[in-house]
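Could you help me review a protein record that somebody else here produced? This is what I was given.
***
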Amino acid sequence: MKVKVFCIGDIVGRPGRRILAEKLYPFVRDNEIDCVIANAENAAGGSGLTKQIHEKLSKYGVHLVTLGDHCFRKKEIIPYLESQQNLVRPANLSPCAAGKDYAVYQTSKGVTVAVITLIGRIFMKPADCPYAKIDDLLPKLKNDADIVFVEMHAEATSEKVAMGYYLDGKVSCVFGTHTHVMTADERVLKKGTAYITDIGMTGASDSVLGRNPESVVRAFRTQMPYPFEVASGDVRINGIVVTADSHTQKAESIERVVICEESQGDTQVYDSDDGKPDYNNGF
């Protein structure tokens, strides 16, 4: 059976949440999407996730929520990670880290979709081997999921590409996150795995990775700490739609998606205040 999975790039702050609230349901309805996966590690004030925001994302229509290197930025999320079945942190963190290695969603068609997030080790904080971890997890998922999506949350493009080739034929899709810039290398690899190096971000396109350009440039020029406020201009959803066959576990197609706001004027705000921005560490 064919299923369509919509993977959404890193949600950055209130602008990213707002456009999801406005645009996600119509897109899912009009394109007959079966499952929605979204990275939300930057959803709260541009860095981290809260219980309240996670609940709102679920109401907007996100079925599976992933996190990256900012997964523990908001302390309140740590105990919450243990109780939520649709929320995952990077699987190759320490075995002692709070949270789950993978999550599974059953679509209305009865097909089950699993997501696993792996974190890179180049230009990133220390983590366990992502290859050893995925080799350990995939046999465990054979009886739990019909289709497996792997998010590679990494800085280096080479690390993402290498994981795509390693998992070709083993999972239905490998998609990259973390750099917030959508790449144009989407393709189905030789053994049937859909791949893209980065699916971009959901937030202000008129920005430096979702942050106010002036403050980021000032920080780079002066090497002094400045608050990286979340930007608000030209808000877009970046992501991919992958069509996969639940019987073969192979992808049939992968398409890049960009959804723009129709108006940049006054818009209803759906969420509470994010709090103060971080200083020079919020990308």
Observations:
- Confidence is low (pLDDT under 50) at residues 263-281.
- The longest helix spans residues 13-30.
